[in-house]
Every structure is written in C-alpha cells, then in structure tokens.
C-alpha cells in the first residue's frame, strides 16, 4: 500500500495525462473487440469463454480506479497549493484501515487495483480448473452447459482477489510478498496445466490402445480429444501471458533489487502503471495472435475490409471512364452532324454551277 501511495503522489504532466487518455481509449476499443470475438466463436466451452470475457470486462474496474486516483490527485494538488496540513496516515504513509478509510477515494482505488491484479493472477488457475471439471465430467461435458462451474470459479476468483487486496492494503504487505504471490500463482498454473494435459493424453492413449477390452463410448473419446485440443490452443496464449506478467514484475522489482535511486524507481513504476492500466491493449492482441481461430478471423476481416476499399476504388474508376468516353463521343458526334449539315449546301451549290455551265 505504501508503494501505491507513493506512486499516487506523483503529479502527471500534461503529456502524461494525454498518453493515459489515449491508452484508455485504446483499451476500451480492444475490450469491445475482444468480447465480440470471444462471443462469436464456439471453439471453447461456454464456461471457459465466460471466464475470458469476465477477465476482459473487469478492465472497467481499472478505469474506475484511475478516475478515483485522479480525484485524489486533484484534492492533493489543492492541499499543496493552499498549504493545508494533512496528517492522514493513509493518504501519506499508506497505513490504512478498512473501518476508517473505507470511503476514501485513494483507499477504494487501491482496493480495486489490487483486486484486479489478483483476479488476473487467479484467472489461469480458474481456466485450468474448468478443464479439470471437463476431465471429470468427460462423458457429457460438451453437451451440458453447467453454468454453475463458471459461477463457482468466478466466485472463488473474486474471494481470493478481495481477500488479498484487503490484506495488501490494510496489513502492509511488502512488495516482495506480492512478487512471491505472482510467482506462486504462475508456477501453480504451469504445474496444473502439465498435469491436466498428461492425464487426458494418458487416458486417451489407453482408450485407443485397449478399446476392445475397455468399456467406453465415442463421446468420451471425443471429449478427451477436445480437452487436449483446447489445452493446445491455450498453450501459446498461456506462455505469452506468463511472460508478460513476469516481465512487468521484473520491471518493478529489478530497480529495487539493484538499489537504484528513488527517482528512477518512481519513473519506472509510473511507466509500468501506464502499461498495467491499459492491459487490454496487450491482452487482446496477444489472444488474437496466439489463438489460431481468432487470428484467422481478424485476418479475414482485415482482408475483406481492404478488398472492399480496393473494389470501391475500381468501381469509382469504372464510373469515371464511361463519362469521359461519352463526352468524347458527344463531341465527335457534334462535329459529324455539323459536317453533314454543311455538305448538302456544298452539293447544291456545286450542282447549280454545273447546270449553269451546261446551259
């Protein structure tokens, strides 16, 4: 919490405010695009798709967090300009209590920020837990919706995120504790992923090798293949997200580990804060790039858009060409008509002269 308060006391420049506004606008667009793509495809089970959509829509929590933080900075600027003494330990030292500061904008902002962070950390585990349920209910998981699984996972993620956010803001959790929590969550996700994939692959191999002696149905075989297919589709996305989270954690932790000066640490945290609050700008393109069906859909839309523009330009040139040709034809036709109108007179005058000479 002390780190969050220290960063919150940094007054952004006009350029910084502009950059944040642009990033928030891009984040909003990416969130809408990501939700639209996720709703369009059925390659993932509904529960898994709902977990991903919930993660995207939770970005609005960061938007509210940033608005509250701007309100706090505005009040802080007034205190500084009017030289008002404020001895609030939560505002200046990060020593907050839930009962005393539950209505303070800075405390609510911190709660929402850490809630989002821990919710994101719990999302890979939640997705893999959904795959565990798919393995347990292997007979009819694809046929049945079982929305209670998504509800249970979503509730568990929120409980974990709320507990950790309150603990971080009120109990004075250190930055080292947060880093260890991140590493523990990511390591647990990797272990669960490996175990789920191994179990499904082993069971599928056993069914294919011992299908004559093993009592199973085609639906079980299909579900096991779907589990492995889903895990394969998620693999690159998982690895990319883990790399991004580790990179962000190291970017915040290395300046402290290297014992750099305070100004450098605050500058690095400011830029990382921009990246953190514009999470959809990195999350949605990563999903599009790493998930094959999403990537093909976006490329198809881009090609279609470019093709329509190209065709429209062709149509415009085709429309212009007949007009030019028509004008030229009309001009030549007028000249031809004038020549025809003048030729009878010449012929008559010529015939009159001939008759006169004959006479």
From TrEMBL:
InterPro entries: 7TM_GPCR_serpentine_rcpt_Sre (IPR004151). It is a multi-pass membrane protein. It holds the Pfam family Sre. The keyword Transmembrane applies. It comes from the Eukaryota. The chain crosses the membrane at residues 17-39, 51-72, 114-138, 147-167, 173-196, 237-254, 274-291. One of its GO terms (cellular component) is membrane. It is found in: Membrane. Keywords: Membrane, Receptor, Transmembrane, Transmembrane helix. The keyword Membrane applies. One of its GO terms (biological process) is sensory perception of chemical stimulus. PANTHER family: SERPENTINE RECEPTOR, CLASS E (EPSILON), SERPENTINE RECEPTOR, CLASS E (EPSILON)-RELATED. Belongs to the nematode receptor-like protein sre family. This is Serpentine Receptor, class E (Epsilon). It comes from Caenorhabditis elegans.
């Amino acid at each position: 919490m002390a780190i969050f308060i220290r960063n919150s006391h940094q007054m952004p420049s006009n350029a910084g405010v502009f950059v944040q506004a642009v990033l928030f606008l891009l984040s909003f667009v990416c969130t809408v695009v990501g939700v639209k793509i996720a709703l369009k495809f059925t390659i993932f089970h509904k529960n898994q798709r709902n977990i991903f959509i919930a993660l995207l829509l939770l970005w609005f929590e960061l938007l509210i967090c940033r608005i509250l933080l701007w309100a706090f900075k505005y009040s802080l600027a007034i205190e500084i300009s009017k030289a008002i003494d404020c001895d609030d330990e939560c505002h200046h030292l990060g020593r907050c209590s839930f009962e005393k500061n539950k209505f303070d904008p800075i405390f609510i902002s911190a709660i929402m920020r850490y809630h989002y962070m821990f919710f994101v950390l719990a999302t890979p585990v939640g997705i893999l837990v959904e795959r565990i349920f798919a393995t347990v209910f292997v007979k009819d998981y694809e046929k049945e919706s079982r929305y209670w699984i998504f509800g249970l996972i979503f509730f568990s993620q929120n409980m974990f995120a709320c507990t950790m956010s309150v603990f971080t803001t009120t109990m004075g959790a250190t930055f080292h504790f947060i880093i260890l929590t991140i590493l523990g969550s990511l390591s647990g996700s990797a272990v669960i992923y490996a175990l789920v994939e191994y179990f499904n692959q082993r069971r599928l191999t056993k069914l294919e090798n011992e299908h004559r002696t093993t009592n199973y149905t085609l639906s079980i075989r299909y579900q096991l293949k779907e589990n492995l297919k889903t895990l394969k589709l998620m693999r690159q996305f998982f690895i990319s997200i883990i790399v991004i989270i580790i990179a962000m954690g190291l970017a915040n932790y290395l300046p402290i580990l290297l014992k750099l000066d305070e100004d450098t640490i605050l500058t690095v945290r400011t830029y990382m804060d921009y990246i953190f609050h514009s999470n959809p700008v990195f999350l949605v393109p990563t999903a599009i790039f790493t998930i094959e069906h999403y990537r093909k859909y976006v490329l198809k839309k881009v090609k279609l858009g470019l093709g329509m523009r190209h065709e429209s330009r062709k149509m415009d040139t085709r429309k212009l060409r007949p007009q030019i040709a028509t004008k030229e034809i009309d001009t030549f036709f007028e000249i031809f008509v004038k020549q025809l109108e003048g030729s009878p007179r010449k012929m008559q005058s010529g015939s009159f002269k001939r008759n006169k000479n004959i006479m």
